[in-house]
Design a protein that fits this description.
The protein is an alpha+beta fold. The chain is built from 19 helices and 24 strands. Helix content is about 30%, strand content about 25%. A hairpin with a 2-residue loop joins strand 12 (about 310-315) and strand 13 (about 315-320).
Length: about 625
Amino acid sequence: MGYSSQCGEAFALGERAPIALINPAASGRMAVGEALLNLASARVEKIGDVKLSANWMAAAGFPGEDAALYDTVKAVGLALCPALGISIPVGKDSLSMRSVWEDNGEKKSVTAPLSLIVTAFAPTPDAAATLTPQLRTDLGDTDLILIDLGCGRNRLGGSALAQVYKQIGNTCPDLDSPVQLKACFDTVQALNAAGKLLAYHDRSDGGLWAALCEMAFAGHCGVTIESDELCLDRFRVEIEQEGMDEDAEIITEHETYSARAYGVLFTEELGVLLQVRRADTAEVMKAFIDAGLRSEFHVIGSINSTDRIQVVRNEALILDFSRAELHCAWSETSYQIQRLRDNPACAESEFAQLQNTADSGLFAKPNFDLNHNISAPFIAQARPRIAILREQGVNGEVEMAAAFDRAGFEAVDVHMSDIISGRVALSAFRGLAACGGFSYGDVLGAGEGWAKSILFNPRARDEFEAFFGRDDSFALGVCNGCQMMSNLKSIIPGAQHWPKFTRNLSEQFEARFVMVEVPDSPSILFDGMVGSQMPVVVSHGEGYANFETGDASQVIGALRYIDNAGRVTETYPMNPNGSANGLTGVTTPDGRFTLMMPHPERVFRTVQHSWHPDGWGEDAPWLRLFRNARKWVG
C-alpha cells in the first residue's frame, strides 16, 4: 500500500463452473470457498475484512438456466455469505452466454453452463507474511498436513478426474459447513501470524494429488504420502454414505483401497495442505482441534531426499514417480500450445529445463552488506534533484521515484511534454531516470519512437544533448527507457557502440523473475556490486540486444543474465530475450550513463520480491544501485 509500509492488499479467485452441471448452488458455494482458501495464504486479520466481487454468467432464457441462476444467487448471497460474515459490494453479470447460428440451413447453438467467478480481496497487515506453495527443504524435519473440509466424502463429480474419463458425475463437492470453513480460515491466520506454517496450498482445484505435485515442483523436492489413514479408516463410512452394498460392490480390501485412493487423491473437496516443522505439529494439531476440526486434521506425509513423488500404504509403494517426470506431464499441454504460439526453440528450451534435476532454482549472492547504507552521510544534506522522465503510457515512474527518494534524492515527475514545451529544463537536475512501462501503447519500437520525439525536436534535442554533455550528470534507462536511450546514442558521449533493443527471440512479452550477475564495469550505479548474483524483475517485449548498428566487441556490459548455476547464459527462459552472452545492461566508459532491461526499481525493498532468502531486512540488494547514485553525486 506504500513504499514505506508492509501493509498491502490481497486478492484471490475462485470458480467451479463444471460443478454447475450437477448442482448450480454447490458450484456457487464452492467458488466462494475456493476464493477464501486461496486468500487465506495471505495474512488477513479476520474473515470479516474480506469483500467479494461476483461475476455471474448464464444463458438467461434457456430452459432451466434462470432457475439455476436464482438458486445459486440465493445460496451465495442470502445464505452462505451472511453465515460467513462476508459482503459482496460489487459484481457484474453476463447473461447472454448462448450463441445461435445457422450453417447451411441447419440451426446450431452453443450454451455455456452457469458460472460464478468470485474475486476475494482484503487488506493485509503484512504483505511479507504471505505463504506460498514452495516446500522448504532447509528447515529440518517437517510434516505435510491436510485439513479436509470435505470430511472424507471425497465426491468426484465435476472433478478433473471425471473429465479425463469423459464423465461429469452425479455427486459433487459442496461447502457443507460455513462454520468449519470459517474455523479453518481463522486457524490458518493465527498459525501464520505465529510463524508455525512453512508452505500452503488450497486443495479444491485439482485435488490432493495435483496440490502435492505443485508444492513439490515449487520446492524442487520429492514427497512421500502415507495414505493409510485417509483411505482405510473411512472405508465403512464411505460405503454407508454412498448407499453401497458392501458385499455386492466391493470384493476385496485391496480393490476397496484402490477405489478409495482415487477419491482421496483426486477429489476437489475444500481443504488445505500445510507444511509445518515436525516440532510444531502437535501445537498445530491442537490449534485445529480447539477450532472444532479434530476429524479434519491429517498428517499425511513428509518431503523425501529421493526427488520422487510417492504414495505409500503399509510401507509399500503404491505410486512412485520422479518429480521431473510429473513436472513435464503437468506442463505438457502448456508446452504444446507455446510451441504453436511462440518461437518453438524457446518453448522447447523451457520444457527441457524441467527435466534438469540439478536446477536448484533462484538464489541470491550479493557481495556487499545489505544493511550498510553508503548514502547515509549524504541524507542530511540538501537532496539533489533527479528527473523521473516519462512519456505517454509509461507506468513505472512512481516506483522509480520511490527508489531514488529512499536513496536521498528529490524525485521530480517530468513528462516529455514538459521538456518539449519548455516548462522544465534538464539543467535543473543532476540525474535523469527514463522509466519503463508501455510508451505509445507498447507498439513495436515504441522506445525508438520516444527517442525520435527528442532527436527530431530542436528544443528537446538541445536539452538532452546539453544534459549528457555535462560532467556532473548521470542517467539511468530502464526497459522502455532503456530502449529509448539506446536510440539517443548519437548524443550520449561514449555510447556509440550501444545496441538497439528489439523483439525478444521468444516473440512474446516476458514478465519473469530471473537471475542476473553484475560484471566488472565503470558504471557508477554498480560501484561495489561487482560479482553479485541476484534475482530481478524483467517485464519487456523488446529486450534483445541487437548489434546491427553497434559493435558488440566494444560495448561495455553492466549486467548479464545467468542460469541457476551462476553461469552467463543465452538459454531461455533464464535469458528471457535471447541476447548474446546474456547481455542485458550497458554503460559508457565514464560510467555515468547506464541502460538495462530489468527493473531494479521494482525490487528495492525485500517485501517486493516474490522470493528471497530468509534473513533479509527492509532493504533489498537493488537499493544499493540507487544509493550508489547518491554517493556519486556527493
